[in-house]
Amino acid sequence: MRRQSKRDKMDRLDKALDSLREGRPIFIYDADGREEETDIVFASENVSHDEVRFMRKNGGGLICTTMADDVAERIGLPFLVDVFKTAQAVHPVLRNSLPDTLPYDTKSAFSLTFNHRKCYTGITDIDRALTIAEFGKLVRSVQEKKCENPLKAFTKAFRVPGHVFLLRTSKELLKDRNGHTELSTAMCLMAKLPPTATICEMMGDDGKALTKPAARKFAESQGFIFLEGHEVQEAWDKWSG
Amino acid sequence: MRRQSKRDKMDRLDKALDSLREGRPIFIYDADGREEETDIVFASENVSHDEVRFMRKNGGGLICTTMADDVAERIGLPFLVDVFKTAQAVHPVLRNSLPDTLPYDTKSAFSLTFNHRKCYTGITDIDRALTIAEFGKLVRSVQEKKCENPLKAFTKAFRVPGHVFLLRTSKELLKDRNGHTELSTAMCLMAKLPPTATICEMMGDDGKALTKPAARKFAESQGFIFLEGHEVQEAWDKWSG
Question: For chain A, what is the largest distance between any 2 Cα atoms, rounded to a whole number of angstroms?
Fold first, then answer.
């Protein structure tokens, strides 16, 4: 295999940012020795039912919507672990079941699960797409400081719990944590999009995560961009530094 | 179409109970005018990674594990809405986002999400199957009163939050509510299995739930039993009455 030139790398990164802006998926593998999983990634605003179907058929994991920590803070969307800690006194099961450490990281990114209020059951591709795309619009308006009361806007539009998982990034994004939550949200920021991506892990037919070569092959055979976490990290360091 | 005889009905119900006991799926459509969704249903104890793959490929909805209300009570697994209510004082977003009513029912069945402690990421088919099957074993031991401390057994084996959704039935099962949570758990009880099923909604390619005729056709073409909610209800009334 020929060695990748610096030029090639930039081209692929730029193409990935174009893909996100234009509603196409990109594929991000985190890192050897971490989860070793590839996620399908869309910009949340661009998700329609076709993209939800694409994720569940070609990914097969959980369909989750990320949000940058500062946006989550402004809306008031906590980590699920923090909600559970608050409820420990009343619900003893939450006292000894919260993770101190995960095998691959120190902290889970899970926030609340939610549905748009106009959903019927919440689980159809149309319903999940509505939840995701409307959240994308809310994040844009919060990000652009056009939303006077983000908390009220959220509770007016959405109900909790629901069928889409929210994931909250770490505070300092890729400085703190290198999960798909942070990698995909950093890509949105570099694409000048609202900092929310919708992601889904790719599963293999053998019970395990789809291998990196198989995920790369799938992505490239369809003309999509496959990135590794370190490529996103390098671009981010340059962009944010 | 010929009218179904009483004999045919019983045969199909019995075949469905055999299927559950033998680790095969059954398909349950709730009712016209309710969710109008068909769920793939397995007895939780019998779930391996092949069954998880079957559900995500042929269903496409959320993979959820049910538990009878009395088992949930003995373990101490609350409805998620009740956890969120407890945390409302600290997390204002939970004050105005909880559902008073759902379009198709009065109450959501969501309890906690969880992973077995031996999971790696929690989302692979192998990991989800481990979580589900081990929960099936715990429910069996709680049901058979062989578990001295169900709460401790749960927190020792599982962590919260995770990648599998727990669903808790209504208190009086099919007397109170006729969702897939209750229908599938009632089938487990009638099959003399621990009262926990693992279920996944079937989606169509048009963004909506798979239609009843298409779900029936899929099930029957593979030699599996397709039931409607009212058939489960009739059998349950006779069995529990």
Answer: 60
